[in-house]
From TrEMBL:
The name this protein goes by in its record: Sugar ABC transporter permease
InterPro entries named in the record: MetI-like (IPR000515), MetI-like_sf (IPR035906), Sugar_ABC_transporter (IPR052730)
Topological category with respect to the lipid bilayer: Multi-pass membrane protein
Organismal lineage: Bacteria, Bacillati, Actinomycetota, Actinomycetes, Micrococcales
Family: Belongs to the binding-protein-dependent transport system permease family.
Membrane-spanning parts: 41-63, 75-94, 124-149, 170-193, 235-255
Keywords: Membrane, Transmembrane, Transmembrane helix, Transport
Length: 261
């Protein structure tokens, strides 16, 4: 990877000549590359936080569930076991303005046909992909947090309830300390998955409209396999690795701190 990034490399002529830092200078001066890096980080942070918050809420609900709990846990596995390509196709059909599920519901309320087309909007296309992403991966967060909740000593919860701890106070002082380390670890896993999103973008929008949903992984794919510029693609990959490290290291440190408190 490093060798390709500092040379002029293509699929047909790898490592043709040494170029030094020219590939890095080229990608840093490319507005599309810089925009894709910022877009990917913002997208990953948003969907990771959303998945984690929703997953914790679902896990707390599962703990309090009785007979329906096992059925819900089974249903939660369905989005996770579906391949991302299938998830992307499913949500593309849901958002289809020509008879998709949301379009049919809106027409039932009297809206004009094809009045809702988020995947064709540069403003709403990325949030639409994010919704599909959250739907697929929130169950993972929920099940891992649920497992952490099961390890909590029931006598501690009962004693806290007898002392009058209820609602948010109970969650803050009893539940949260028991699951904080797990939530931090799950957030880190979710963030890494979101940072490398490719399948959903490829299936749902192909990076469009324009460049509005072009994430870094999809951009690397375009540069390497459509423009055949392996050297520039390698440079983008290394820059992306540096950014991923900078984003994830603080979460790792916070997770370690929460686990030891």
């Amino acid at each position: 990877m490093i060798a390709a990034a500092v040379t002029e490399s293509s699929l047909g002529r790898p490592f043709a000549s040494f170029t030094g830092t020219r590939n890095f200078e080229t990608v840093l001066a490319d507005g599309d590359v810089v925009a894709s890096l910022a877009r990917t980080v913002g997208y990953a942070l948003a969907v990771s936080v959303a998945s984690t918050v929703l997953g914790v809420v679902v896990a707390l609900a599962l703990v309090n569930a009785t007979r329906a709990g096992s059925l819900v846990r089974t249903l939660l596995l369905l989005p996770m076991i579906m391949p991302p390509v299938v998830v992307g196709t499913l949500w593309k059909l849901i958002f289809n303005p020509g008879g998709g599920l949301i379009d049919a519901i809106l027409r039932g309320f009297g809206a004009e046909p094809a009045s809702f087309a988020p995947l064709s909007s540069s403003l709403w296309a990325l949030p639409a992909i994010g919704l599909a992403d959250v739907w697929q991966w929130t169950p993972l967060v929920a099940l891992l947090v649920y497992a952490a909740l099961l390890t909590q000593d029931a006598s501690v919860r009962e004693a806290a309830a007898l002392d009058g701890a209820h609602g948010f106070a109970f969650f803050r002082h009893i539940t949260w300390p028991a699951i904080a380390g797990t939530v931090g670890a799950v957030l880190l896993i979710r963030l890494v998955i979101a940072l490398k999103v490719f399948d959903l973008v490829f299936v749902m929008t192909s990076g469009g409209p324009g460049q509005s949903t072009t994430t870094t992984s999809y951009l690397i794919h375009q540069i390497a396999l459509k423009e055949f510029d392996v050297g520039r693609a390698s440079a983008v990959t290394l820059l992306f690795a540096v950014i991923v490290t900078a984003v994830t290291v603080p979460i790792v440190l916070l997770t370690r701190k929460a686990a030891h408190e």
